Amino acid sequence: MSTVIEGPAIAPDNPPAEAIKAKGSRAVSYWLYLAPMLVGTLIVVLVPFGYNVYLSFFHWKGGLAPMRFSGLDNYKNLMVDEQFWSGFVNSLFMIVGIVIIPTILGLILASSLFDYISKQFNDTVASVLRALLYLPQIVPIAVAGIIWSWVLATQNGVLNSVLEGFGISSLPDWLGNPNIAIYAVVLMVMWLQLGYPVVIFMSALERVDPALYEAAALDGAGWWRRFFSITIPQIRPEIFVVVLTATISALKVFAPVLILTMGGPEGSTVVPSFYAYRNFFELSKVGYGSTISTVMSVLIIVIAWAMLWFQRRNLTEEA
User: Fold this and answer.
1) Is residue 313 included in any domain, yes or no?
2) Cα-to-chain-centroid distance, residue 301
3) Residues 252 and 297 sit within 8 Å (Cβ to Cβ)
4) Residue 150: inside a domain
5) DSSP for 228-276?
6) Containing domain of residue 237, as a range?
7) Helices (H) and strands (E) in the chain, counts
């Protein structure tokens, strides 16, 4: 009896018509699935952005006023506009208040809740604390502005009352002093932002293998050693997502400035998005406001693309 040895299956050079038809059907299904999102993106994002770029080449007061083509004049004026660059510097403060400090504190708080509070007490206590930290994220921004106006009030404000309790007699005018008003805004955005990284990082910690922590503890590694050697490397993708989304939020922050200071005092808390709003609706310089919006949009796209490229390159090198 002879034995028949079967060789590996070899794909035919010409796939059958049924396979080609099925592949084409799947492609059509994918595009039909994506069609609503593509149409929405076109209507809500791309068309308005294109019209905004178009307006940036005109001097226009809005409404029925005539539009006068100005070429690149708005862009040239923006490059030497001290108010814009001052607002750009304030955006760096927003990055500190929305990205750097909340991300670092979020990592420490999430690790503490996950690794200490939930074990020393129980998961319910950790969940309640997490919810309290996230609460500012769901508070309407108008309510947050009222709360912080009360906290930062010069007379009888919560913060100054605390400072007075420590014996400080020269109390700062948080919202009236142009030298410190930006720090008051940073305090508010930090309070608003902190819960977001805590929730993301606690979810990320759920997927970390507990055996890693147990092995490190058996080897005598303390909490901080486990934090730097296990926690941060294991949840690095989530850290990247938080940094990316928070950076974009910091560069287009608007509502906290509008609610808390209206850009004052003396323009010390103006950020680019608020400066664009002021040119649009207060100064009737629609073309110039469009120019500011266009420049900031391009800047955000470039920064987001660079961060994604950097992250993808790191993943490729690790693979």
Assistant:
1) no
2) 13
3) no
4) yes
5) IIIIHHHTHHHHHHHHHHHHHHHHT--HHHHHHTTT-STTTT--HHHHH
6) 90-270
7) 18, 2
Alpha-carbon distance of 191 to 250, in angstroms, equals 14
The answer to whether residue 69 sits within a structural domain is no
Closest CA to 216 of 234, 192, 238, 196: 234
Taking the C-alpha atoms of residue 263 and residue 278, their distance in angstroms, rounded to an integer, is 9
Domain count, the chain: 1
Give the pLDDT band (50/70/90) at residue 54: very high
Q: For residue 319, what are its two tokens? A: 């693979």
Mean pLDDT of 221-242: 89
- Give residue-wise pLDDT tens across range 99-126: 999 999 999 999 988 888 888 888 888 8
70-87: pLDDT as tens digits: 889 999 999 999 999 998
Buried b (16+ CB within 10 A) or exposed e, 163-187: eeeeeeeeebbbbeeeeebbebbbb
Helix/strand/coil for 54: helix
In the block, tokens 């910690």 appear at 205
In a domain, 293, yes or no: no
User: CA-CA distance, 251 to 98, in Å (whole number)?
Assistant: 10
Residue 43 phi/psi, 5° resolution? -75, -40
Partner residues linked to 59 by β-bridges: 68
Say what the pLDDT of residue 121 is: 81
Residue 236, number of CB atoms within 10 A of its CB: 15
Q: How far apart are CA 99 and CA 120, in angstroms?
A: 30
CATH of the domain at 202: 1.10.3720.10
Classify residue 301 as exposed, middle or buried by CB count within 10 Å of its CB (0-12, 13-18, 19+): exposed
Q: What element of type H or E holds 58?
A: strand 58-59
Q: Residue 16: is its pLDDT beyond 80?
A: no
Which are the contacts of 66, defined by CB distance < 8 A and separation ≥ 6? 60
What is the rounded distance in angstroms from the CA atom of residue 21 to the CA atom of residue 8? 26
